[in-house]
Every structure is written in C-alpha cells, then in structure tokens.
Amino acid sequence: MTDTNTPHQQLARALAQRFQRFPTVEAIALGGSQARGPGDSQSDIDLYVFSLAVIPLSARQALVADMRATRADLNLQFWDLGDEWYDAATGIEVDVIYWEPAWIEGQLDRLWRQHQASLGYSTCFWTTIRHARPLFDRSGWFAALQRQSEQPYLEALRSAIVTKNHAVLRRVIPSYAHQIEKASRRGDRVSLNHRVAALLASYFDVLFALNRVLHPGEKRLVEQAQAQCARLPAAMAEQVEAVLQATCATDGNLVQQVHALLDNLDDLLRQEGFEERTT
Question: Which residues fall within 8 angstroms of residue 136, CB to CB, at 6 or more apart?
C-alpha cells in the first residue's frame, strides 16, 4: 500500500487544495507511481487537473509563485497542456496535466465502446484513470468514471490491439522489422533506434493485451510484464535486452535478434489461438 504521508503525497494534497478553488475544475487526481507505487526519491508528482475550461495562465503563474519554485516551465504544449516546476521546499518535480473531462471521456469511449487500438500504449489512459488517486471530485464525475474503469478487459478490444500491433511488427511490407532490415543495410543508426523503439512499443502492446492486462505506461515494461503477465514468450527479458544491445552495436546482429524476439511472440500467440493470417 502506498504511504499517504510522504512529502510527495503531502505536496500533492496541498496542490489539490489550491487548484480546487478554480470554479472550472471538476476533479483532481494523483497519478503515476505516487498513486500506484512504488515511487522512489526520483519520482515526480503527476497531478491530473480535470477542468471544464483552461485555467488562465496568469492564475497558474500566481499559484506557482505562491507555492514557491526553484525553476518553472509553464504552459507547456508539446504533448498535453501542462505546467512543470521544482518545489523549493522539497526539491520534488511537479508535473501538472490539464485534461477536459469530455476529452478523457472520448479517449475511453474509443476503448470501451469503439474498441479502437493504437500503435503501442493502447490502454494507457484506461490505466491512468483506474489507478489514479482522487484528491478532489466536485460533483462525483471522477468517481463515476473510475467505477466504469473497473470493468473487465474487453475481448473485442483485446483482439483489435493484437491484430493491429502484430501486423506492423513484420507481416506487412512497411513493418518495423522490414524497416530495421533496410536501415541496417544502410548503416543508418538513427533510423534503427527509431524503428526499434516503435517495434518494442507494439510488441509490449500485444503482450499486455494478450494477457488481458492494461498497459502500465512507458516505464519498466520488462519488469511490469514479468510481474503482471501470466503468459510470456520464452526468454522474453533476455531477448529484449539482446535487441537493445544489438541496436547499439555494429556487428550486424540486430536483424537476427529482432526475428528471434518476434518468433517467440508468434509461438505464444499461436498457443493462445491467434493465427498469423488473422492478425
């Protein structure tokens, strides 16, 4: 069980008390390792602020100034709208993500009702909502959404994730394996790095879906798979490590390691009743 009296948890609650004063804020939840555990001294605070409208930047600047920061980067829009800073008193990195309630409802609708897969990380938003720790819930909206997130893994979604991500591993012409082979022949190591990362994203998406496990996110995927997945490809951890090592090497062994990794995944898929022609 996550300790709720750590400096991270105390700071998260203090921030929630500040953000809930904005009338457009519907809910606030703590995510990441501080909600699910185990966090460590390097962990940041992932605070999700669900707001019906964008909180004015001037108001957010005033909040951060009042809370005191050693460094702040506000109004970041590279991914989602967010603010990040380092708390002066504790040195903790704070990552505030602003989501509209309707937007996250739409992301979950794609999974729960439309059964739409992504290329990698298909069920990460589902994971975020299911495991987030609510700190403020003005009308009970977040509690209702979290209750929906407790539903069983959807078989139609499982099939869609496996089908979409398995095909792009090496079955179709523009597959990641094929692009890795071409980049290897060219000696294009930047392209190799890019394609290996994409291949592993889809590989783990298949693996978690196959086991009916919600995708845990981008960190510690080998450890997460070993801890949560009952069925794993043979030598999964060793083969992932071999692919990563070969990506950095110049001995031309990467293509062989990639195919060995995918061969064992295919063996597991066949054992689970998935045929290559249908994926």
Answer: 16, 19, 20, 25, 27, 28
What's the token pair of residue 164? 């979409």
pLDDT over 70 at 169, yes or no: yes
Residue 248 CA to residue 246 CA, distance in Å, equals 5
**Which residue, among 203, 205, 202, has the nearest Cα to 214 in the 3D structure?**
205
Average confidence (pLDDT) over 201-222: 97
Domain ranges of the chain: 7-149, 155-278
SS3 state of residue 29: strand
Residue 48, strand partner residues = 29, 97
CATH number of the structural domain 155-278: 1.20.120
Give the pLDDT confidence of 70-126 residue by residue, as tens digits. Answer: 999 999 999 999 999 999 999 999 999 999 999 999 999 999 999 999 999 999 999
Which residues, at least 6 apart from 90, have a Cβ–Cβ distance to it below 8 Å?
7, 11
Superfamily of domain 7-149, CATH level 4 = Beta Polymerase, domain 2 (3.30.460.10)
Kindly report the number of other CB atoms within 10 A of residue 95's CB atom: 16
Q: How far apart are the C-alpha atoms of 119 and 75, rounded to whole Å?
A: 28
